[in-house]
Amino acid sequence: MFRLGYIARELWGRRGRALLTALGLALGIGLVVAVTSLSRGVEAAQEQVFAPLAGIGTDLLVSRPIELGDPSDPARPGGLAAFASLPREEQEALRQENEDAFVDPSDLGEPGDEFAADSFLPATQLTFPEALGTAVSRVPEVAAVGRALTVLLVHAEGTVPEQTRGQRPSFRGGDIRISTAAVAGVEAGRRDLGLITAAQVTRGRFLRAGARREAVLAESYAARRELEVGDSFELDGRRFAVAGLARPPIGTQAADIYLDLPVLQRLSDREGRVNLLLVRARSAAGVGPLSGRVESLLPGIVAASSQELAATVEGSLVGADDLSERLGLLLAIVALVASVGIAALLVLGNVGKRTRELGTLRALGWTRRRVVALVMGESLGLGIAGAVLGTAIGLGAAALVAAVVPPLEATAARPVDVGSLFGAAAGEPPTAEIELAAPVEPGLLALAIGLAVLAGLLAGAAGAVRAARLRPAEALRRLD
Amino acid sequence: MYALRDVTRAFSSGDRRVEALAGIDLEIAAGEHLAITGPSGSGKTTLLQLLGALDRPSGGTLDFEGRALNGLRERDLTALRLERIGFVFQQFNLVPTLSARGNVEAALDPLGLRARDRRARAAERLAEVGLADRAGHLPSQLSGGEQQRVAIARALATEPHVVLADEPTGNLDRASAEVVAGLLEALAGEGGRTVVVVTHDADLAARAPRVVLLQDGRVLSDGEARSLVSLRAVELPVGDVATAERWYAYVLGVPAAAGVVTLGRGAEIRLVLGAARGGRTLIETSDLGSVRGRLDEGEATSEGLVARDPWGNALVFVHRSE
Questions:
Q1: If both were cysteines, with which of A285, A393, B18, B221 could B213 make a disulfide (CB 3.0 to 4.6 Å apart)?
Q2: What Rg do the C-alpha atoms of chain B give, in angstroms?
Q3: Percent composition of chain A: helix, strand, coil (DSSP 3-state, to 5)
């Protein structure tokens, strides 16, 4: 206890120098805390983006994209040539599903009449029979299968133009405004497996099974439309209540409006058809082989894993990943080493200045070990002070950076957009703006304290070695 | 208590080997009060450090209470210092961040006493040196004399068998020096305790019944000091011109101090004094009084010579009249 008091008085008595040393350590620790917490923030953001399927309880996303090809590549002609290359029944299915895409303005009313119309176009994939889900669920490695249908809602409103008929019909006048939204049908009864799950609902609640007139909206879409939980909106002439708002993971088939699957199938005239299966494997090891087995069930089927979806993500978040992993870590290490070095020099200088005091203690019968423990104890005290200051600096710096840095952006590239084939704009590809948080968890605090204490002890070791080598006769002789 | 036989201590300084002690033979009995004096560089502090188990001799044997210190391990020397030896330093060497009581407790801490006992013993020691009411003060809040009394309390904390004081009054004013000298004098013989004081101060040395004069790492004289005009005498071998020169230079180098030597009759003294001051004879002498006269013209009387140095310090040269 006496030595604890001695250490405390020594640190307080030389508080200027002690504060300087602790501050040196604190800067290093603060940077480590800031960089680590920011790095974890970036990691958390990446988890949302780079592991989109994990958020919806899925290992594989099964779809049937249309290979549009490349017009410049004769082997992959693309466009209508690609459409013509599809099997007849698929062409027929596409035609049926996309009848809405061909709108005759005369069907909307007389020229000059106000009108509003909703059409459902294919989003990015061809549909396939819902029964495929049953076939997939029979594959031994499959634990569960969820079904979903995604379509593109094209909302047109304005005044009907005047149409001149003839060999080359043309339109005059009229004012048509078109907006689009992605609509997904999910199995309302499944709260943990689907394009969206109950876990992603941020306000309100998830869809109830069998509820025919309710929807969950993506937060961003609700904000655009200024809709809140409890409000209602019109879709193809029917009113839907907003049951909840959700933040769907990007990289999947994120939509703006989520309805119960049968409701959307009826609305979009796609009864009995889906265009996405969400497959959960029995084990992580089984995902690779499972992908091949599922794709063999139907021609044109693609089973994408989480990694494959993550590869389609780009944006500032990816850059932030590099920044936090490389530059941040390097900076933290350099700062930590520098702060330990400076602290070691200060401790060493302090021991040098206290040669008389330490020599006197040795003369009084203090063992070498006791003197070393005194020096190390003081360094430990400095380390603890550095930990407290450093954590405060780190928290402040992390909060400041998180407040100042603009939101990180991640964009999932759309490999194909069938809607564009029929002249409808598909809108922007799914983009997520992720506010960078800097979470400081207990583990990080423990790491900071541990590092500071270690840094203090390392700094003190230099002084302790000097103190240990101190021969009392020499220490006292210098005073003569 | 101490038995030194042909003790040497040499230090290396680059290629040079400096012999601080060149064959010391000394016996110090338990309870004795001893002053070690001599000019700077004569080896006083080195000898004190050997006596204090802070260092080991390069040669010879040094026994303390029947144990040869030469062969003891560092750990044993540390234990010896803790349990048997107390130190008092010229610069006090108090820990500046600890109170007076804390400084005394610092000496007790390695004994592993209970905190209550440690504090009580520290308070007792401070009371013994008259500082009970200053226990909570930091060294910077104490006068030089008080700081040295704290240092004495610290030296006595573990109830050592021997107290070694290195120029204990060197940094004190006359009044404080008197108090500290009195304390050290009182300690000597108290419960068989030995007190060894290294000093330039003739007054302080004179308080010790036995004075050892060192010069060039050797014992120049060792014996009972003789009183004359409030000073004590030490013996200088007759005819040792070179030694006398250094001794005089030493005395002159310490204003306000006086040195005493015993000289045999002889003309050497004139040559010595002349050499010490660039060939000019500085000392006027008379026999025990104010009669002035040039030393080279005067004669040492049967009683001795009294001279004053250029700063007015009295220099008394005593002739032992055997």
A1: B221
A2: 21
A3: 50, 20, 30
CB-nearest to A364 from B45, B107, B115 is B107
The per-residue DSSP string of A58-100 comes to -SEEEE-B-----TT-TTS--HHHHHHHS-HHHHHHHHHHTGG
Chains A, B: CB contacts under 8 A, how many? Answer: 80
> For residue A473, what is the nearest residue in chain B, using CA coordinates?
B54
A142/A146 Cα distance (integer angstroms): 11
Domains in chain B: ranges and CATH: 30-51+73-215 (3.40.50.300), 225-318 (no CATH)
**B109 interfacial to chain A (CB closer than 8 Å):** yes
Q: Do A365 and B97 touch (CB under 8 A)?
A: no
Contact (Cβ atoms closer than 8 angstroms) between residue B26 and residue B4: yes
Question: Could you give the CA distance from residue A23 to residue A456 in angstroms, rounded to a whole number?
Answer: 11
- Spatial distance between the Cα atoms of B78 and B27, rounded to a whole number of angstroms: 23
**C-alpha of A44 from chain center:** 6
B165: closest CA of chain A, how far (Å): 12
The candidate with the shortest Cα–Cα distance to B213, out of B58, B34, B52, is B34
How confident is the model over A281-325, as pLDDT tens digits? 877 666 777 888 888 887 778 888 766 665 555 555 555 555 556
**Quick check: A363 and B87 CB within 8 A?**
yes
DSSP of B70-130: GG--HHHHHHHHHHHEEEE-TT----TTS-HHHHHHHHHGGGT--HHHHHHHHHHHHHHTT
From chain A, the residues in CB contact with B107 under 8 A are 364-365
| Coil, helix or strand at residue A340 | helix
- What's the CA gap between B248 and B260, in Å, rounded? 9
Shortest distance between the Cα of B157 and any Cα of chain A, in A, equals 10
**Distance linking the first and last C-alpha atoms of chain A:** 33
Whether A21 and A347 have beta carbons less than 8 Å apart is answered as: yes
Whether B97 and A1 lie within 8 Å, measured CB to CB? no
- Look-up of token digits 């780009």: A314
pLDDT tens-digit series, residues B74-131: 899 999 999 999 999 888 899 999 999 999 999 999 998 999 999 999 999 999 889 9
Q: How far is CA B232 from CA A179, B186, B225, in A?
A: 117, 19, 5
CB contact under 8 A, B49 and A473: yes
Q: How many helices and strands in chain B, by DSSP H and E?
A: 9, 15
ipTM: 0.73
> Where does A78-172 show beta strands of DSSP type E?
114-122, 128-129, 142-159, 162-164, 170-172
**A3 contacts in chain B (CB < 8 Å):** 109
Secondary structure class of B146 (helix, strand, coil): helix
In this prediction, residue A157 carries a pLDDT of 83
How far does the CA of residue B82 sit from the closest CA of chain A (Å)?
Answer: 4
Give SS3 for A239: strand
Q: Does the CB of B90 have a partner CB in chain A at under 8 Å? A: yes
* A276-281 and A142-159 beta bridge pairing: antiparallel
Quote the tokens at residue B226.
């003789």
Please provide the distance, in angstroms rounded to a whole number, between the alpha carbons at the two ends of chain B. Answer: 32
Domain ranges in chain A are: 2-51+317-477, 66-299
Average pLDDT, chain A: 77
Per-residue model confidence as pLDDT tens for chain B (322 residues): 899 999 999 988 778 888 899 999 999 999 999 999 877 778 888 999 999 999 999 999 999 999 999 888 989 999 999 999 999 988 889 999 999 999 999 999 999 899 999 999 999 999 988 999 999 999 999 999 999 999 999 999 999 999 999 989 888 888 888 888 888 888 887 778 999 999 877 667 778 888 887 878 888 777 665 432 223 333 334 434 334 434 443 343 322 223 333 333 332 232 223 223 332 333 333 232 222 222 332 333 333 444 433 333 334 443 333 3
